[in-house]
């Protein structure tokens, strides 16, 4: 599609946002749900039940002291958010090392809840077969405020670079590096939502004063491989696993999904390292980004979380079959 997004409510058309504009954007945000109730507490409960071998607090986002304008944010009080890495079983040398990340974009709910559901319902089946680590929610503030960006109007999923300006990305990369594990697989859990077109991409166009082409939101699940290591059989295995849970997105009339060429049913590729995406920060040979569509009339929160679990398990099963 070639239409541009309508004028956004913040900023001056044709000019990138100033710090004042970013503060005006921040003043419009407010807490809509609790990271502590919905993410931190369940993770600690899974740890107490023995489904998590070790729950590492790999850093804290110090957002309690954010400067807020008087009367802004509808009374919300932000917090200092502890970040968690769940180690599923005791490390065994010689097994493939699997990384699962979720909540890089905090508003993409099933990425977070799907990661937690995987730990609860499926991860223990791989003890003795793979070493699995899960970072369920990289962006707690984004989770609470249902936002793509962090409080500084930065997209963590465009920030996986050395000396990253995003603490969400910087701390996650440091956590994985500190584990010193050669990764065989990395799967990053995401959603594509209707709000991408109604809020987040219009905000991006305004923030950067760069026209963003409007694209159709695909109805269904799809994956994003890496152009430098596409692994089509790996992507196909994920699609096949998810098909039993929810429908797969179809290509548009131009044989594209979100503006990218469809490589096979339900699969597109991005150059993840050059775009500084979470899926590109490791050198794992098997890499995929999942995209669930929660706004479909044929989906709901439970289906979306189950689709993420199916994607993870389908991916792991394929990798184990290739490495055995």
TrEMBL record:
Gene Ontology biological process: proteolysis
Record keywords, A-Z: Hydrolase, Metal-binding, Zinc
Domain Peptidase M14: 41-324
Transmembrane regions listed in the UniProt entry: none
Needed co-factor(s): Zn(2+)
GO molecular function (one): hydrolase activity, acting on ester bonds
Coiled-coil intervals: none
InterPro entries hit by this protein: AstE_AspA_cat (IPR055438), Peptidase_M14 (IPR000834)
Pfam families, alphabetized: AstE_AspA_cat
Signal is among the record's keywords: no
Family the UniProt entry places it in: Belongs to the peptidase M14 family.
Protein name: M14 family metallocarboxypeptidase
Organism field: Brumicola blandensis
């Amino acid at each position: 599609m070639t239409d541009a997004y309508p004028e956004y409510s913040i900023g001056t058309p044709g000019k990138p946002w100033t710090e004042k504009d970013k503060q005006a954007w921040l003043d419009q945000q407010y807490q809509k749900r609790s990271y502590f109730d919905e993410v931190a507490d369940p993770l600690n409960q899974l740890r107490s039940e023995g489904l998590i071998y070790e729950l590492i607090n790999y850093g804290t986002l110090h957002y309690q002291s954010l400067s807020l304008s008087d009367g802004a944010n509808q009374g919300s009080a932000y917090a200092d958010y502890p970040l968690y890495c769940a180690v599923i079983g005791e490390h065994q040398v010689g097994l493939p090392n699997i990384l699962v990340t979720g909540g890089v974009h905090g508003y993409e709910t099933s990425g977070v809840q799907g990661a937690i559901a995987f730990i609860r319902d499926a991860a223990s089946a791989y003890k003795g077969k793979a070493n699995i680590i899960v970072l369920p929610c990289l962006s707690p503030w984004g989770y609470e405020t249902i936002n793509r960006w962090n409080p500084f109007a930065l997209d963590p999923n465009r920030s996986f670079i050395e000396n990253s300006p995003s603490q969400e990305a910087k701390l996650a990369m440091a956590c994985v590096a500190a584990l010193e594990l050669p990764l065989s697989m990395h799967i990053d859990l995401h959603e594509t939502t209707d709000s991408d077109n109604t809020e987040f991409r219009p905000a991006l166009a305004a923030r950067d004063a760069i026209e963003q082409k409007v694209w159709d939101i695909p109805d269904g699940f799809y994956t994003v491989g890496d152009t430098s290591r596409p692994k089509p059989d790996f992507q196909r295995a994920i699609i096949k696993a998810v098909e039993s849970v929810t429908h797969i997105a179809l290509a548009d009339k131009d044989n594209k999904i979100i503006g990218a060429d469809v490589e096979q049913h339900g699969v597109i590729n991005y150059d993840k390292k050059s775009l500084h995406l979470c899926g590109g920060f490791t050198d794992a040979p098997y890499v995929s980004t999942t995209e669930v569509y929660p706004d479909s009339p044929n989906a709901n929160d439970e289906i979306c979380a189950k689709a993420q679990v199916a994607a993870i398990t389908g991916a792991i099963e394929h990798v184990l079959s290739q490495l055995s």
